[in-house]
Amino acid sequence: MKVRVRFAPSPTGGLHLGGVRTVLYNYLFARAHGGDFILRIEDTDQSRYVAGAEQYILDCLEWCGLTPDESPVIGGPHAPYRQSERKAIYHKYAAQLVEQGNAYYAFDTPEELERMRQDHRKDEHTPAQYDHNTRTKMRNSLSMPEADVKALLDAGTPHVIRIKMPENVNIHLTDMICGEMTFDSGLSDDKVLLKADGMPTYHLAVVVDDYLMGITHAFRGQEWLPSVPVHVMLWEYLGWGKHMPHWAHLPLILKPDGNGKLSKRDGDRLGFPVFAMNWTDPKTNEVTTGFKEIGFIPQAFVNMLAMLGWNDGTGQELFSMDELISHFSVERVHKGGAKFDYEKAKWFNHQYIQKTDTAALLDMALPFVEKELGHTCDKEQLEKVIPLIKDRCTLLTDFWAQGHFFFRTPELVEKAAITDKWNEQKQQFFTTWSTALASLTEWTEQSLEASFNEHVAQQGIKKGEVMLPFRIMLVGGKYGPGVFAIAALIGKEETIKRVGAITG
Ligand code: GLU
Fold first, then answer.
1. Which of 4, 102, 250, 441 qualifies as a FRET site for 473, CA 20 to 30 Å off?
2. For residue 276, what is the DSSP state?
3. Which residue has the CA at smallest separation from atom 3 of ligand 1?
4. CA nearest to 251, candidates 174, 344, 328, 176
């Protein structure tokens, strides 16, 4: 049987890194087994639908290099891949379930449902939910005479279809990660399967589509575990029990202190991204920064995510996509939650910057540098700058932070470090040397250093006394690669100008 997996997001907003990790594990599993990876958009909840979120998900997958084999855009043998376009299919199965007695019509108004919840809150022994305890007291096709039900349906009375969860069944599941699990069917409520607006809920749609699309293995977050009993019952009721996919419920990604699930708010609070790419809320226009825009290389982001809840047991941390595909195994996915560590995430990016060649880094860094410059950047210059500063770069944004002075005269942020200890001798040194520079014929790192050393010796000044001032003149601060390499790259005119800014 061919392996078929799916990522089934609801287009409700930005894609959390946990979502990308779910995609990744699905993808690795599919590729390792020569299977198919399907993207299905679960957009049946119209109240949560957010315009632009589907395109955003597609863009994120593309950025990460996790391309589906079948999707709403690519199409495929089971199109459409957008649940809102598959309404008629779900109606058929909802009707079948009612027919079989496994589901029923419910006519309760929101007020009646609220009253039921209020009444039950007084009774601490049973949960305030629509289930075997309460359904007989509600207005549905199990509690009402058939003729009344028919009359209500004929009159077009708004109604939903609910699953009839059995009261006393032990539901078993062998999860690829969590192992053997047993659920008491009586604890689940009679979930709505088909809503009054004619749309299925997630529960019905996910089961129907996983079956029709031939899904063999399904990876999703552990937050979906409470839905398992309902899903297993639906697979059974629809007569597809033998075809149910093998489930893998992934551990949660936790806050850095391990205290609960990592949320967007934690990212805002602690100053790191949680979404894969920038997400602009269409209602408020508020932008949430993503890993892409903060300067992560997609391969580093993916590698880091792979390690959030999995390892291959050898201590290896850096894996190419091909290596991830060949090393990944569900057996080694951790059962417990994985703490997100932003410092570690940055470590991955730093490693990737070091092992990426200049030509590739040039393409990656260019947009970040041009954004800061506000105009196109001299690519040849950037190509020469990259090898000089890459070891100081952790994020792609650092190519500007560590290299801006190659493109623009810097602000002398640490000018005081020069002027506080300025004296006649230093003034003399830089004035003379700068005149000598004007007539220097060969402008290279080596010739500049030789000329500098020569003047130091001639004037009897300590090299250490003038090196730091020279650095600050060129860079604006006490950082950066070798001063002569900087001067060589910015050129004669600019070097003399920067020295002149201090010496006058
Ligand atoms: N639509 C669900 C979500 O938004 C999919 C859960 C599942 O994979 O079954 O995450």
1. 441
2. S
3. 9
4. 176
